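re: ur question from yesterday

yeah so i grabbed the chain u mentioned. its 235 aa long if i counted rite. heres the sequnce exactly as i have it in my notes:
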Amino acid sequence: MSTEPPPPPDDDPLRKRPYGNPPPSGGSPYDHPGGTPPPSGGSPYDHPGGSPYDAPGQGPPGHPGSPYGAYGGGPYGPAPDPLAGMPPLADSGRRVLARVIDLVLVGVVVWLLSYAFHTTEYDYDMGGGTVDYGRSVGQSVIAAVLYMAYDTVMISRTGQTLGKRWLHLRVADLGTGATPSVSANLVRAAVLWLPFAFCCACVWTAISGGYSFFDRPYKQGLHDKAAKTVVVSTR
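ran it thru and got these structure tokens back, copy pasting raw so excuse formatting
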């Protein structure tokens, strides 16, 4: 009676298997189709179907067939799409409408506080009539602080202001798709609201937010570019 152990079953998960296409019965896993051996000095993986990276889901990190994806690009494939796995980018028109809603909501609070602290617009008497001179520095400071705090706190918590929530939009980190960090949101809010509060309010809003209408491929406003964020749709 033979004392040799029985051969392992075909479904043994630890059994080595040749990469690529299975060889003909009785042949080497490195045989070329038809039984022709590889040329002298050639790699056993030179023939079609014989590369360990040809099969889907196999290959080194960075290869298009790798379970790790095309991370980092390089010789194995292009760099990954930052938007892969994220919801679709938000329509720029909906973004503008959400911003208008936020402007109105925070603007009401700014006006109430400005009135309470007597920093509302004041008039300058030119003798022949009253001329509206503009907002005081105090009102500008209140506006800047409130708008920046509103955006930073709300978006750091859920990725949404009230306007974005009602219109089913969300701010996401371009690299990870997650809710942006507090520091990123602070940069984003500062770029958007500081010029708005202290000078060219309507002009800056149109430039910074309107840039998303023309930006490709991520539809970013200038404040998004500064913070490396995008705005996506949640439905």
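noticed a couple things. The longest strand covers residues 130-134. also The chain has six helices and four strands.
anyway ttyl
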